[in-house]
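Aggregate trends can hide what the representation actually does to any particular protein. This step matters because it turns folding into a mapping between discrete strings. For completeness, the protein is quoted in full, as a sequence line and a line of structure tokens:
=====
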Amino acid sequence: MSGGAAQRLYVGGEWVEPDGGHYEVVNPADESVVGLAPEASRAQVEEAARAAAEAFEGWSRTAPQERAAILDRAADVMQREFEPWAALARAETGAPTGIARGMQVGVGVSRFRRYARGALEPVERGLPPQVTEAGPMGRASVLGALEVRQPVGVVTCITSYNNPWANPAGKVAPALAMGNTVVVKPAPQDPLSVFKMAEALHEAGVPAGVVNVVSGASVEVGEAAVDSPYVDMVSFTGSTGVGRRIAEVCGRSMKRQLMELGGKGAAVVLEDADLDAAVLGIGTTFSFYSGQICTAPTRVIVHRSVYAELVEKLTGYLAFMKVGDPGERGTVVGPVISGAHRDRVESYVELGRTEGARIAHGGERPVVGDGRGFYVAPTLLVDCTNDMRVVREEIFGPVVVVVPFDGDEEAVRLANDSDFGLLSYVWSGDAARAFRVARRLRAGGVGVNTIGRNMEAPFGGFKQSGVGRDVGSYALHAYSEIQSIVWA
């Protein structure tokens, strides 16, 4: 299927016409139509969940080597189709070419390779013999025990719009590696890339029903994928508000959950920091998916003695960032995902102004080409305080706020005074001091003098940033249940 064709649903190993017709997927860079996505009915979502449930027994008993081979073959297909699928990802998301290639399709390929190996990782281990008192005589008996990781069952994977390759690959690949079956509900803004992933798995020989993909612009599609009685677990990436609603529904039937939700990353810049390095790290907020990333260091908390210098350096950095068509050479900041989201981000910039923040850079709507597309100027809001909504709420766009502090205790207090706790960051020339501060931050991960992530380290959040951990071996754990087998 070409990117511009009318896409069909993937249910029970077949490509089927959607009951609800199709809707347009729009390129946020120029507002052209990328393709037509299928609108599933509730009955079709239920059919997909039932197909996954029926396929579970056979797939969960499939040899790990066979599961690994299918994941590897799917990665081979993705690699073969790399360029056209990267072009599709760029068109759906508005991401610059380098990000569409490296951080979208490229990461998708690498995650399928990683979890092909993961399927072969040991999932059983013997536990130390336990000595227990048993029987009326109090006789001691030594029991053997085995810890076994079993697949959860049918997993609904609801993916985010900011990365239609890395995000679903990070759910589907480890879930399949552990022997689960999946129903994937992609974000309505850019579902076509996820269907390409299904094409790769289909060509790789995944058995019918093991992978199902249902899309739709209606909230009913996602709701049906969550509350189906055939579903045992929901893995969701998206906003905290939607995550709360999903958790409520899952709670009624005790479905397992993996939630990667919002973020408002604190970037603590101590007075002895390398300010140029800090600026480069903070600057990725503007360039990486145009700020549409929950791990971004959007809340800069900087020592008052270097506050003016950091603001000056950040302002200078922004002056050289090209906002433009993601397909053009030199573009650093592309569009946000939709006109509605552009309006939301711009409303926060205006809110910051009314709350008393000063706009050090940006704030206007850039005009690119013929004026079409959903572009937001990279914006720096300074002289902020922690009670402002622009500091407390996730904006999810190319906007950074700056708050001053006077000492380490105040820095930690300000950083932790947030509803979110996904990733935070510390910059300091004193490694021991930086680690002391990092250990006190209420965040699932902390980068010290870096925004880089170790992709084998556990990933997830504190507070309203989510529930559970994934990435690396932790993703295998997330899509499994522990079973203890004890024998005499």
In short: The two ends are 57 Å apart (CA to CA).
